[in-house]
Write the structure tokens for this entry.
Amino acid sequence: MAITASIAAPCASRLGAATMRLPAEVDPLRLPNHVAMIMDGNSRWAQVRGIAKERQLRAAAEACYSNAREIVRLSSDWGIKALTLFAFSTENFLRPREEVDQWMQQLDRVLSLDDPATILLLPRPLQAKISDAQSITSGNTGMKLVMAIGYGGHSDLVQTCQALAREVEQGKMAVEEIDQINLAKRLMLGERCEDVGAPELLVRTSGEQRLSNFMLWHLAYSELVFEKKLWPDFGEEEYKNALVEFQGRMRTFGVKHHS
């Protein structure tokens, strides 16, 4: 499931207010349009702080979504056009029931907060609230925020291929029409970010260096930054460093550039 909405405040111009807010080390003309983040390391964050075991799950979930709000704010202030956050994967639902329930409870609790960024952090069972959140933000013109909840890259690809196969079977599409463009449009997250394109930058926290079944199609040519800090400790400085690292890379897209 992917929940999509826009932030209430209009996104500042790259050469206007956003430029004033950007750290001096970041070039406003070379910002990635679309940033994706894997919010990893929340449970470890609670453990290393010595939080009592019976409180660790709740503390981890609270810290995760609290920091997500801050990263949403920074992204909007700095002029990022789209931000996709990997909140909960299909594989995460295979964890112990108690852990899944705690994360879902915290996602539900987020709804009681009077904050335009947090109203979008919703659990899978709350279909009506998801609809309400998307309706509430439908007229906004700021940064696009996508929350991936219960999402898996493999299932996204399989479901998309099945949908295309049904269209061919029904005579709505020729086999030859199944190309990269049509496939990308039908993918769950691709459809929601068609106007801004695939993520140019992926950041994963906690030191893990893998995609974990996230946006497998879309990340083919994204720049990957693996941050050692755990997600609740990933703040403005770390975000700035990731953007600086992104801007320091030469993006060739498989085409060799001769000096």
